[in-house]
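User: My instructor asked us to take a sequence, write out its structure as tokens, and then describe one feature of it. I'm not sure where to start. Here is the sequence I was given:
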Amino acid sequence: MITLYINENKKLGHINPEIYGHFSEHLGRCIYEGLYVGENSEIPNVNGMRTDVVEALKEMKVPVLRWPGGCFADEYHWKDGVGPKEKRKKMVNTNWGGVTEDNSFGTHEFFELCEQLGCKTYVNGNVGSGSIQEMSEWVEYMTLDGVSPMADWRRENGREKPWKVYYFRVGNGDWGCGGNMTPDYYAHLYRRYQTYIRCYDKNAPIFKICGGANADDYEWTDVVLRECFRNPAPPEAHGFMDGLSVHYYAGVEKGIHKGSATDFDEAVWFNTLARALYIEEVLTRHSAIMDTYDPEKKIGMMVDEWGCWHDVEPGTNPGFLYQQNTMRDALTAGVSLNIFNKHCDRIKMACIAQIVNVLQSVILTEGKKMLLTPTYHVFHMYKYQHDAELVESWLEGAGKTGVKETEMVPEVQESVSVDENGVLTVTLNNLCTEAEKEIELVLTKKKPAHVSARIVHGKMQAYNSFEEPERVTEEDFTDFRLTDRGLTFTIPACSVLMFRVEMEG
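Assistant: Let's start with the prediction itself. The structure tokens for your sequence are:
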């Protein structure tokens, strides 16, 4: 028997909704066909945004959306994506498949999409091939409610009032596809570029994000922070940044051939989950470096690319990164989100890559067809963690499981939060492939008055196809019993389980 202890009265930090954020890049069929089909499409849409995808994402409560990249961002010149669509310049997407980008989805379309989703906007500026002037004028175009060349141009293009840019990042993947820079070189560029990200409305500040490390490159974090905090940086500027990014993909270390998304054995299952769980060490060590420069935690850690990276589906364009999504991905999402919750004192945003048709997507489309992936259902169940308070929880009696000694993982993993109405959300993952686990949930002070639960489970290779779109789905879970101390239940193998617990008193 595993015991889950919950100290419901001890709050450890606030879980920003943005921890459940998403990433959309001009990559493969993410934007075109996935999110945007154009106003004249036979697929139902509102102003070009396909209705079925938007409605599904609204139901999942997307809190923030990052755009336009990714590697694409540092070749993207925003002026090519505004104005009459028939006059917009075309370009070759050199990073992703060598296809022609017609720029029919640009700044206006992105904000239209976010307005339909009801989510915050996260814009990624071009440092790799762009100028300070270009970035500065983009911010002016988007946010200035006054008279200026860029604001006037926005009005000519059909938008009278400025938009709200919540988050703005200076560059992307600066250590790689964004320019192959050294950390000290990027830090100096960052200091220059961010100076010209003007806040035209003091009531709508722009949260500035500095480009951070790839996975466990701790030297990058240390050097960038050292240079950004160097004099004459005033202390109140906290390194001229509000956030520092980190990217982490489970499986990318394998190189070009990362393994099939659907055809794998137990050893690969545990290898992937071990790699996913390694993110906790990555975050802890980056946080420790950040603490030396920013002990008051004024700078948020932004894990703005994360997720599973498998081989593309056979027969698809290798540059489109289109992959299937199994229960392995669902468990990876579940354990990652639990880890982010537990580090909410430092982590203020996380964006899974990517939202539709690319890497670990929550939605896949094929023409008029659309399906929800196992990862979608995890995010849908976890939505109750948005804006909640993390509470203390721990497991006793949980062992390890795995095939290789070096890749053992916890049998069960959890996080717990409480919302403004006093309702607990408990999210649990059973990482075992075959073994169900008996669990007693124990509350410290109170008794449960009403409990409901939902679950996603199945065989480790199970996935949804357009032929079987509901093979893996969310279901009610009723196999639990209330006790004087809490409740008891058996969590099935290979599952993600969510409880909502209303307490007496």
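For the description part of your assignment, you could build on this observation: Residues 212 and 245 are 4 Å apart (CA to CA). Try explaining in your own words what that tells you about the chain.
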